[in-house]
């Protein structure tokens, strides 16, 4: 079947086309469904970042609220689109955006390994967004440099490098005097199993919301153990306007180094999401429209840190929701963005999320970070396992994980080298890129048995 025919068939199965505007009630219902599908992804990342930075409940709640606000703003930017054709920002198709887990490993490096704290994290996000905006003009040559063997290796490394943190959460938090308490492990295991079973056997929204359901189950089980302090909810405000640069912003260039790999991968992933979005909505996207989608990621990633959220990326799970719900309405996606902004203004809602014990997030973290690693392995499965490619993968993952587990080894390197190789992600990416460029690719080389 030709691509145009496939797009026509996709369009014919849709109940609501891109330009359709369902009535308000229907739009709110379908918008909430989009939010439900993305919610666990939207709130999980700020919870992870808060855990890395050891923030208190109030600041954690603010991060969650800020993430919801930023997601709403970014989703509207991407969905609506604005600006002249050559410099357009936003693809103009229904999307939901939020911070991706791929940015968590470099965030950990900046906050803890490099000592930049939250201010360094937000400063690096903004500087990286400028880099992504520049890269949006070089999508084609960038894809030639970031070959599948490089992209797959980097994504795999990102997921693997976060596993020690997930297990610290399972133990109750590295600074917890009762670290490793059997009750923490029990709760984490239950969360893990619930998510696993729902992802494997459930259908529809139960499958899409598996992470959120698993976290809710773990949250409820934690209550009788006395791990949830509900007094924090009573102390939270009912309504709060967003603050600009609440945690400060540090524009030290060295902090952006770990984010370079994340933004490079984001550009490539967003191109793929945009192409898929065009397929499921029945809209044939031009190269300029795809680039406009990448550009919206960068503009949103520039704006979001000022209100307290990390870099933004288009969520692939919501693209997958379109053929399931048969709704490709741009209007519905904008309504979802407005609802996210409204929800973010009520701190009591975010505080309910923020008082969740770390062991609950740890149970989900195994699968969340594992999924990132597996998505990289999936990319690598399409790569021919020649001697060259094997050397690139082994060297990059080996060096990347080595630096992740023993960052002190490279801490005394002179000048910018300590920044470039201070993060396992950046070290692994640099090695993969250099070897990819200097090791000649032989299409006829045999695969290693």
Brief description of this entry?
It is built from 21 helices and two strands. It has helices at 3-13, 24-53, 57-80, 104-113, 117-135, 139-145, 148-161, 163-170, 182-201, 204-208, 210-222, 231-235, 257-281, 287-307, 316-325, 330-344, 347-354, 358-380, 387-405, 416-420, 424-438; strands spanning 97-98, 313-314. Its main location: membrane.
Would you write up a description of this structure?
This protein starts with a helix and ends in an 11-residue tail after the last helix. Helix 9 packs across helix 18. It is mainly α and about 450 residues long. The longest helix is centred in the first third of the chain and has 30 residues. The chain is globular. The protein is built from 21 helices and 2 strands. It has a two-stranded antiparallel sheet. Belongs to the nucleobase:cation symporter-2 (NCS2) (TC 2.A.40) family. This is Purine permease. One of its GO terms (molecular function) is xanthine transmembrane transporter activity.
List the helices and strands and how they pair.
Elements lengths: L2 H11 L10 H30 L3 H24 L16 E2 L5 H10 L3 H19 L3 H7 L2 H14 L1 H8 L11 H20 L2 H5 L1 H13 L8 H5 L21 H25 L5 H21 L5 E2 L1 H10 L4 H15 L2 H8 L3 H23 L6 H19 L10 H5 L3 H15 L11
Antiparallel strand pairs: 1-2
Helix pairs in contact: 1-13, 2-3, 2-4, 2-15, 2-16, 3-14, 3-16, 3-17, 4-5, 5-13, 5-14, 7-18, 7-19, 7-21, 8-18, 9-11, 9-18, 11-18, 13-14, 13-15, 13-21, 19-21
